[in-house]
Amino acid sequence: MSTTTQPSPRLRARRRRHTPYRLLAAAFAAAAAILIVATQADLRVGEAVLARWFVQSVTAGQSVAAGTIVYFGIGTDQVTGLSITALCSTVVFIVPLIALVAAMLAITRAGVHRVLLAGAVGISVVVVCNFVRFASAAWAFDRYGRDGFDIVHRYAGSIFVIIGFVAAIVLTLTIGLREPHRKAPRRAPRGGRR
Asked: Quick one: DSSP state of residue 1?
């Protein structure tokens, strides 16, 4: 035998008041996803600047970003460029997560702040994973040449970012849809005979 509880009239009224805010947040998230897609070429330039720091830490010589290419090995006998293409960009992973956040805001009753926090956590996971992939590919080229690069770029790195992307989706859903802990009502102490 199970029991269900209905939300109180006060909670229902509060949810109705927050509906326009939720829809506005959902529309903002959807617009952000569209804007990111529209400006992905510029964002890849920014990615190259950030990726340079990761690549610099694992390769010999100096690294520099020029457009969407990170050059590394400057000052050594071999300078190599790592190009951040549209398919390798973190945008590929961020946009679906933002779309998921927009859908969660539009069709669930999860708290807006909780869903936005969940989206930020998920996006952070995929960004870190993709930059680790960039650095790993550069390290593999620096250490093992083209063969090492191909193994990391095509196989190991791709598997790593896919696992990171799945983990980001699971985290976003888990954090965003988890019900907040409610305190159990306090019971009055039982009076008894001594």
From this structure: -
- Is-contact 63 56, C-beta < 8 A? yes
Q: Please say if the pLDDT value at position 104 is more than 60.
A: yes
Q: 65 by DSSP, 3-state: which?
A: strand
Residues 40, 47: Cα–Cα separation, whole Å? 10
| DSSP category for residue 53 | H
Q: How confident is the model at residue 186 (pLDDT cuts 50, 70, 90)?
A: low
Rounded average pLDDT over 45-74: 95
Residue ranges covered by each domain of the chain: 16-177
Check residue 4 and give its pLDDT.
56
User: In this structure, what token pair is assigned to residue 150?
Assistant: 């191909």
Q: How far apart are CA 53 and CA 113, in angstroms?
A: 32
Torsion of CA 86, 89, 95, 96, to 10 degrees: 100
